[in-house]
Specification:
heterodimer, A: alpha+beta, Ubiquitin-like (UB roll), Fumarate Reductase Iron-sulfur Protein, Chain B, domain 2, 5-stranded mixed sheet, two-stranded antiparallel sheet, B: 3 helical TM bundles of succinate and fumarate reductases, about 75% helix
């Protein structure tokens, strides 16, 4: 049992400071809560406690905190928020392992809808832009897919763990209001689909889309994404892989005119 | 198909930083290093450069224009970033911020340095390498100027070396984490060596006996 756990159990409460926002256009403000401590609490269960008894530290009854979550096991990416300065999933942010008071805010790189609910729609737009899929739909039998080597499978498996959670965008200094950068995750997805034997049939299309406005070139190599990614996706390796691909693509295209 | 102007601009910025701007930096520091051998050696090195045919054309098209493009497109990149080292205090994130800070320092330094040394030559109808050496020594005999120049040189060399690291990533040469780590060490060593060359030349010009040191070291 950690020291903090001992302290928290002694106090029997968890001190939380939220950055709240009532609507997309309203101003953010801070609100503090003290919730009863239970063993093995995470940020989600602390917020559920607030739902049960929405009384802030001043004793006022307020609207409970709004957030999004689904899987509660760090595979869906829905509950991403900034906990003590780091963007991460609230479900795996364990109260026992966090310094109190715990500061929780929305990932402000995205438009905030309410409290911790953000609109990650730009990530879906980015995936559509770079054609992050393999077009095999049809009415006729296409036959079996080509075999993949174990090495290819391992590499693609790592890249396939992306859950579009948005943490890499929040961590990247080049994803902000001034820039059109679509974010590191999209580069990882292009790498994933370009490395697939069937997906490779359309790899030029994806590379081409990836180097259009707001694409790959906006990476400034701060390498925050690979540090922040909760799934440990080798994003910087994917970026450099696509850089190499883009270099080849560029020369190939010029020399083919 | 889609618009790739942004990509080409960024790649051009990256390429020009190395060829010709980075190459010129190395050549320039090499020439200056002759000053450590005394004034005559420096004068000889400058006269060799001045003997290159079509020098003004080279200066304009291989130094001035690429440098201006690199500088002003660089400023555009600098002001688009939202730095967050307080939140993510990793080595690479510090390098990211330092690359931008040293870029701005380097630009200011280069404008000042070009004004003091290159532009002044334009006002002189018959410039000689000897005069250039004497003028440079007189500028750098002021310790404050010498310290500011030292900061400028270190910042420039840092920007070049760290820039080379990211150049290798941005063109897909160093792809994996191990290659990038080795590259980090290679460029740290390069930073130390190149800075040593630059700073020794500064120290030579700063030396009050620079003019009288004629070939005494030989």
């Amino acid at each position: 049992m950690s020291e903090q756990t001992a302290v928290a159990e002694q106090q029997q409460t968890v001190h939380l400071i939220f950055t709240r926002q009532d609507g997309p256009d309203s101003k953010p403000y801070n609100e503090e809560f003290h919730v009863p401590y239970r063993k093995n609490m995470n940020i989600i269960s602390a917020m559920m406690e607030i739902q049960r008894n929405p009384v802030n530290a001043k004793g006022e009854t307020v609207a409970p905190i709004q957030w999004e979550s689904n899987c509660l096991e760090e595979v869906c990416g829905a509950c991403s928020m900034v906990v003590n300065g780091k963007p991460r999933q609230a479900c795996t942010a364990l109260v026992d392992k966090l310094q109190q008071p715990i500061r929780i805010g929305p990932m402000s790189t995205f438009p905030v809808l309410r409290d911790l609910v953000v609109d990650r729609g730009r990530m879906f737009d980015a995936l559509k832009k770079v054609k992050a899929w393999i077009p095999v739909d049809g009415t006729h039998d296409l036959g079996p897919a080509p075999r993949q080597s174990a090495l290819e499978q391992q590499w693609r498996y790592e890249l396939s763990k992306c859950m579009t959670c948005g943490v890499c965008l929040e961590a990247c200094p080049n994803v902000n209001d001034n820039s059109a950068f679509i974010g590191p995750f999209a580069v990882g997805q292009v790498t994933l689909f370009n490395a697939h034997p069937t997906g490779a049939l359309n790899k030029e299309e994806r590379t081409e889309a990836l180097i259009s406005d707001g694409g790959l070139q906006q990476c400034g190599n701060s390498q925050n994404c690979v540090q922040a990614c909760p799934k440990g996706i080798p994003l910087t390796t994917a970026i450099a892989t696509m850089n190499r691909e883009a270099t080849k693509h560029m020369f190939k295209k010029w020399l083919s005119f | 198909m889609s618009n790739q102007t942004d990509f080409l601009n960024r790649r051009l910025h990256s390429l020009l930083g190395v060829i010709p701007v980075g190459f010129f930096l190395l050549e320039h520091l090499y020439t200056n290093y002759h000053a450590t051998q005394g004034k005559e050696a420096f004068v000889e090195a400058v006269n060799f450069l001045w003997g290159i045919p079509l020098l003004p054309v080279l200066e304009i098209f291989f130094i001035f224009i690429p440098l201006m493009y690199h500088a002003f497109y660089g400023l555009y990149i600098v002001f688009r970033a939202r730095n967050n080292v307080s939140q993510f205090g990793t080595f690479r994130n510090y390098m990211f911020v330092l690359q931008r800070i040293t870029g701005v320092i380097t630009l200011v330094f280069i404008i000042w340095h070009v004004w003091q040394t290159r532009v002044q030559l334009l006002f002189d109808p018959t410039p000689t390498a000897n005069e250039l050496a004497m003028d440079t020594a007189s500028i750098l005999s002021n310790d404050i100027t010498a310290i500011l120049y030292a900061i400028g040189v270190i910042s420039t060399v840092f920007h070049f070396c760290n820039g080379m690291w990211s150049f290798l990533v941005s063109w897909g040469v160093t792809v994996g984490p191990r290659a990038q780590l080795v590259s980090t060490w290679v460029w740290i060593v390069a930073f130390v060596i190149i800075s040593y060359f630059g700073l020794s030349a500064l120290a030579a010009f700063n030396d009050p006996n620079f003019a009288s040191n004629v070939a005494t070291l030989q």
